[in-house]
Specification:
alpha+beta; Arc Repressor Mutant, subunit A; Jelly Rolls
């Protein structure tokens, strides 16, 4: 019997501070009308089959099978394809990270995007992309953690297999956008507000908006909106003679029944019960 032990000596304790926002797969069809757009996060496009063009800023690049396109945050881009050999690719949205090309220790001028081909390493690179797709489709226990670990493996493999000096770097935060959304809700809470409304206000993808808002404020935009409406309704119940139905409309709920249900869930009592309790408490305080 032979036994070989390989010791792992960790010379690099730095952790990758990146979060996987989404995984998707796409095939360019006739009804697909792509438009120029940007995201406040990094996207990776891996071409599984076909060929086409990638438009970034004012430049056009031809892409083929096993090409990887890295588009860092806030870079305007889109993709196009021909029906004869349509593009099929897998896309990852990644928060908190940019991948940049470096020369002599400094980022290259066009490091906000780059193109690479991994035909020689197709099996190891594509396997990770496909594993990510499989995990998000099945959604079995702990799939989010597994996906995050797959992302780390993929990123390190990309750096390892890229001939040029591809490096991982922190991405700027989006505190400004989150603060804007919070202030917008504080002012417009009584109006009809949806995730699409907020996304249009900031030009952010709505799923990414939820992600970064929760990261900064430990709640989602819609939960913050509901809490704001409840707080305003409490003030009106305590200080006005408006009916519960009127207060429901004033603070932005689309029905009294939903308002009552939400209020009970948050406060443990109905709006009418809350008003009665608070006025009784106020009356006793005045008697003293």
């Amino acid at each position: 019997m032979s036994n070989i032990v390989y010791k792992i000596i960790n010379h690099n304790n730095e952790r990758i501070s990146a979060s996987l926002i989404y995984v998707s797969k796409a095939r360019y069809e006739k009804d697909w009308h792509s438009t120029m757009h940007s995201h406040p996060f990094t996207e990776l496009f891996y071409v599984v089959k076909g060929s086409g063009n990638f438009l970034i800023e004012d430049k056009t690049f031809h892409v083929v099978e096993d090409d990887l396109v890295i588009v860092n945050a806030n870079v305007v881009h889109t993709e196009s394809s021909k029906d004869a050999n349509p593009l099929e690719y897998i896309v990852l949205g990644i928060d908190g990270l940019s991948l940049s090309l470096y020369e002599t220790g400094r980022p290259q001028e066009d490091s906000f995007y780059s193109f690479h081909n991994y035909r020689k390493h197709r099996e190891e690179i594509l396997t990770v992309f496909q594993s990510l797709i499989s995990e998000v489709e099945k959604k079995e226990d702990a799939y989010e953690v597994i996906c995050q670990n797959y992302l780390n493996i993929l990123l390190l493999n990309l750096v390892r297999r890229t001939k040029s000096a591809l490096r991982l770097a922190p991405q700027k935060n989006t505190t400004k956008e989150c603060t804007y959304i919070k202030n917008y809700i504080d002012i417009h809470y009584s109006e009809p507000i949806t995730l699409d409304t907020l996304a249009n206000e900031t030009y952010l993808d709505k799923y990414y908006l939820v992600h970064v808002f929760k990261k900064h404020f430990d709640t989602t935009p819609i939960h913050y909106l509901i809490d704001k409406r409840i707080e305003e309704s409490k003030h009106l119940l305590e200080t006005t003679h408006h009916t519960v139905s009127q207060i429901s409309n004033i603070v932005g709920f689309n029905s009294q029944s939903y308002f009552t249900q939400t209020f009970r869930k948050k406060m443990g009592c109905t709006p009418a019960e809350y008003r009665k309790r608070e006025r009784k408490s106020s009356f006793h305080s005045k008697e003293r």
